[in-house]
Amino acid sequence: MFASSLWLALLGTGFYYFLEYRDWLDWNVKVIYKVQPGPCRYALEGGGSEDVIHIGGGIILISSGFEFGAKTGKIKSLNLNTSEVVTLNIRNDPNREEFLAGIHGITYWRDPNSGKMYLYTLTHPSKEDRVEVFEMTSPTELTYIRTISDPLFTFMNNLVAVGKDKFYITKFWQSRDTYMEYAEMMLRMKTGGVLYYDGKKARQVVGDLEMPNGINISPDGKTVYVAEFNTKKLLGYSRDNTNNLHKSWEVYANTMLDNIDVDSSTGDLYIASHPIAYKITDSVLNFFGFAFPSQVLRFKMRDNMVSEIEEMYSDDGSELVASTAATYANGKLVIGTVRDQLMVCDVNYLSE
Length: 352
What we know:
Layout: H1 2-25, E1 40-44, E2 51-54, E3 59-64, E4 74-79, E5 84-87, E6 89-91, E7 106-110, E8 117-123, E9 130-138, E10 141-148, E11 155-163, E12 166-173, H2 178-186, E13 192-197, E14 202-209, E15 212-217, E16 223-228, E17 233-239, E18 245-252, E19 256-262, E20 269-274, H3 277-281, E21 294-302, E22 305-315, E23 323-329, E24 332-337, E25 342-346
Parallel strand pairs: 6-10
Antiparallel strand pairs: 1-25, 2-3, 3-4, 4-5, 7-8, 8-9, 9-10, 11-12, 12-13, 13-14, 15-16, 16-17, 17-18, 19-20, 20-21, 21-22, 23-24, 24-25
């Protein structure tokens, strides 16, 4: 009798976790409806635009060339006023092997006293992750300043600057081996976290996360937002005066959230995401060659908390492949992708 009850309990538990795993992978999602905020067009049709940030005046900076094992990458600029895309020239180039290799997340910080703007770019050379630091000396030119590395930088994803050479950065994976990375994802291991770099060294301020992806900070500097990719959640952390983070809330979004952009005037978040999990998880090893759908959500914020979620864009992957970042500026929605296009959409309607 006891053995029969035990087997039934084990069978029931196994079936429960099977259903939960099936739902996490989105096996039941059959249709992605097409949603656009207005007419859309390509600003780039190749090379990728993994992260995009609006630095003011309708100027969008783009990290282009992210790829596992890539040897180099580029930083580009899109001028929404002219639709011109240029590759930024880099002065004082260190002429180092794998400089800008696998370029990933980008962020900037503007010195309130001097007005100088510093750009921080996360890169993935073969031996270690690095953050390359530049000063933006003209609209089309960067001056290389320094390279930041740390033993805690394993496989990082995105970062947000909060001062000169000070930033929060997400640890996406513990491993740098492709198959182990895939195992971390599929086994849903809590090996990720958030680090704070204080200008000299990094320390962990959040742990036990499932593949934390995008990160950004509220306009008042009090709340740090983290996209926990593998749980499909947006997390909110209050920031204290020692730069430690304390979890305040979480919101389930039912989509794998990627990079986070904050509208400096409203505080709203624009987050690109991946609405079918089993398709985007295949992007690591590319076993099946799926088309990767795209989605952009606007998280309307009130007192640094989510009040409403609005879908801005959606596509099954036939038009836009694997959206990773989005920003809203000059009445336009700019959407980046892992390795493919950069899209600009007119926003004909934005809810209050």
